[in-house]
Amino acid sequence: MRLPRRAAAATALPLLALGLAACSSSPTTANTAALSASEPRRIVSLSPTATEDLFAIGAGGQVVAVDKDSDYPANAPRTTLDPITPSAEAILRYNPDLVVVSEDSNGLVAALKKVGVTVMIEPAANTLNDAYTQIEQLGKATGHASGADSTVATMKSEIRAAVQQAGTSHADLTYYWELDPTYYSATSATFIGQIAGLFGLKNIADKVDKAADGGYPQLSSEYIVQSSPSIVFLADTVCCGATAKSVAARPGWASVQAVKVDDVAGLNDDIASRWGPRLPQLVEAIAAAVEKAPAQR
Amino acid sequence: MSRTVRALTAAAVFAIAVAVLGALVGAADLSPWGVVATLLDRIPLVHLDTGLSPLEQNILLQIRLPRVVLALLVGGLLAVAGAGYQGVFRNALVDAGMLGSSAGAGLAATIAIVFLSGLGGSVVPVAAFVGSLLGVAVSWFASAGRRDTATLLLSGVAVGMFLTAAQTFLLQRESQDLQQVYSWMLGSMATASWTQVTEALPYAAVSILVLLVHSRRLDVLGLGDDEARSLGLNAGRTRLIVIAAASLAAATAVAVSGLIGFVGIVVPHVARRLGGPSYAVVLPLSLLVGAGFMESADTVARTALSPSELPIGVVTAIVGAPVFVGILRRSRVITE
User: Fold this and answer.
1) Which of A78, A185, A207, A223 to mutate to test the interface with B (most CBs of B within 10 A)?
2) Residue A19 falls within a domain, yes or no?
3) How do residues A2-54 score in pLDDT, each as one tens digit?
4) Which residues of A touch B71 (CB under 8 A)?
5) Is A1:B180 a contact under the CB 8 Å cutoff?
6) pLDDT at A10 (0 to 100)
7) Which end of chain A is more exposed for a tag (fewer CB within 10 A), N or C?
8) Given B175, B193, B305, which is nearest A251 (Cβ)?
9) Is B117 within 8 Å of A241 when comparing Cβ atoms?
10) What's the CATH code of the domain at A193?
11) Are residues A20 and A52 in the same domain?
C-alpha cells in the first residue's frame, strides 16, 4: 500500500510533527536565501509528491534522481532510493545540490547538511493551502516561481470548478473513505478528509475519537454497515485490488446504501495519498461520486 | 475425576458465556433483546418478532457472529497447539512460534503482500498457512538425525531468526507495504466471515482430533523416551504426529487471524492449574479456555475504542501477560 503518510501517522506522528516544527523553517529559509545566487541544477527528490510538483512547475530538467515510489510523471528519473529508509551515501552518489524529502528519517538531514547539501522538507500537507505553499516554495527554490504560480492557479480553478458543479452543501450525504481492506479510514481532520469536506459531506469515521489513531482509525465492519454511508471511496484499488464488486461481496455489505445505489468510487491510491498537482483529479473523482449519489430522504 | 469434570464444565461455561456476551455487544448498537430474539428465531420451528431491522439482522448474522465463532476457533486452535508442543518437548515454555511457524507465516505473508497483493485478499491467508507449515518443516529437517528435542528447538529458533531476518530485509526494501504487513502481524479478525470459518473448519477438526487422540501418549512421553519405549510407545513417531497436528492447528489459526502471540503459551498453563498435569485433561481444557480467552480479547479489541478497532495481538498480550504473571506467582512449580 502506498501510504507512507499513514504509517507515519500511526507510529510516529507526534514525533514527526515535533521534528518538522524544529527543522522545516531553518532548511527552507536558509535554502531559498542560498539559492538566490544560483539555482539548483542537480535535484534529488525523495518524495513522490515533490517529484510531481517539480515536474509540474517546469523544474523537471533539473531533477537527476527520484525515489523508487516516484512513479509520476513517467519521465522522472526513477531510482532504487528508498524514501522511508534513505541512505545519505546513496543520495550523494547523484551529487545533488538540492534534496527534497517529505520527512527527516534515518538522520538524513543532519548527514546531508554535514556535506553542505541543502535539504528541503516538504511534509505531508494538512490543508490544501499547505499543498499550494509547498509548490510555491519549490518554485522559488528552483527558479520556477512563475511556473509554480500558474500550476497553483490552474489547480485552484480546476478544484473550484469541480466543487461548484457538484455543490458544497451535501450534509445529507455520508461517506466512508477506505485506505485498506481491513477498514482503515481517515477522519475529517486529515488532509483527504478536508478535501471531501469541500462538498460538505459527512464522514462516518468522525465518530472516532480524533486524538486516537492520528486521524486514521481502523473502523469496525459492523459500524460501517450500520452507518450505511451514501458513498464509499476506495483508496485501496491499486495496493489491494479493492473494487465496487469486491466491496459488494463483503459479508453484510450488500445492504450499505452506497453499494445499493452503486456509488462505490474507486480512486487511484497514489493520487489519493499525495498532495501534488494531480489533486484536481482527486477532487473531480469525488465530485463525480457526489453527483451520482441520489438525494437522501 | 470430579476435579476434571468440574474444570471442563467451568471452561465450557466460560467459553459459552463470553461467546454470548460477544454476540450482544459491538460497534453497532443492536438491542440485546433483539440479538437474543434473532438468534432464537434461527432455531427451526421458533418464530419470534426480533425487533431488529433487516440491516441490523444482517450485521448480527453476517458480521458479528462469524467473528465470534472465528475468535473461538482461533483461540482454541492456538491453545491446543501450544499444549501439544509443550507435551512433545516436555517444556512448558514452547509454542508454535519457537518452531519457525510464526516466522514462516510472517515471511510468506510479507511476500504475498509485497508481490501478490494485486491478486486480491485471499492470497495472504493461503501464503501464511503454507509458510507456517514450511517454517516448522524446515526446522524439523534442519535438526534431522538428532533425536533430542533440544536440538529440534534450537534449530527452530535458528530457522525462525533466519526467516524473520529475511522478512525484515524484504520489508526494508519494500517499505511502502510496511503498514499493511505490520497490521497483519499484530493480528486481526476485523474481516471475519463465514467463508473463513468454513474454510478453517476442516483443518481445525483434523488437527484437534489428532491431538486429543494422542493425549494419553503425551502423558507417557512425559516419562522420558526410555520409559515410553518400555511401555511400547514409539516416541519418535508420536512426536512427529503431534508436531504435525499442532503445526496444522497453528497454521490454520495464523491464516485467518494473523500473528496472535501469547495464547499458545499461557492457556495450557491455566489449563494445568485448573485440571492437573495430565494431557488427557490439559488438551481439551486448553481448547475451551483458549476459545473463551480469545473471544474475550476480541470483544475488547472491537469495543474498547468502538467504532475503532484495536489490534488483537495487543489485547491478548496486555490482558494476558499480567494474568500469566499472577498465575505463575500463585502456582507451585508444575513444569517438571
Assistant:
1) A223
2) yes
3) 444 444 344 333 333 333 333 333 344 334 444 445 689 999 999 999 999 99
4) none
5) yes
6) 41
7) C
8) B193
9) yes
10) 3.40.50.1980
11) yes
**Which among A84, A225, A251 is the nearest to B175, CB-wise?**
A84
Which residue of A lies nearest to B301 if distances are taken between CA atoms? A220
**B59-95 exposure pattern, b = at least 16 Cβ within 10 A, e = fewer:** bbbbbbbbbbbbbbbbbbbbbbbbbbbbbbbbebebb
pTM of the model: 0.84
Host domain of residue A238: 166-292
Mean pLDDT of chain A: 86
- Counted domains in chain A: 2
A69–B309 CB contact, under 8 Å: no
In a domain? residue A268: yes
Out of A80, A114, A146, pick the residue that ends a domain: A146
Report pLDDT for B176.
74
Q: Which residues of B touch A84 (CB under 8 A)?
A: 175-176, 178
DSSP secondary structure string for all residues of B272-331: HHHH-S-HHHHHHHHHHHHHHHHHHHHHHHHHTTTTB---HHHHHHHHHHHHHHHHHHHS
Domains and their CATH numbers in chain B = 2-330 (1.10.3470.10)
How many residue contacts between A and B have a Cβ separation below 8 Å? 128
Q: Does A219 touch chain B (CB under 8 A)?
A: yes
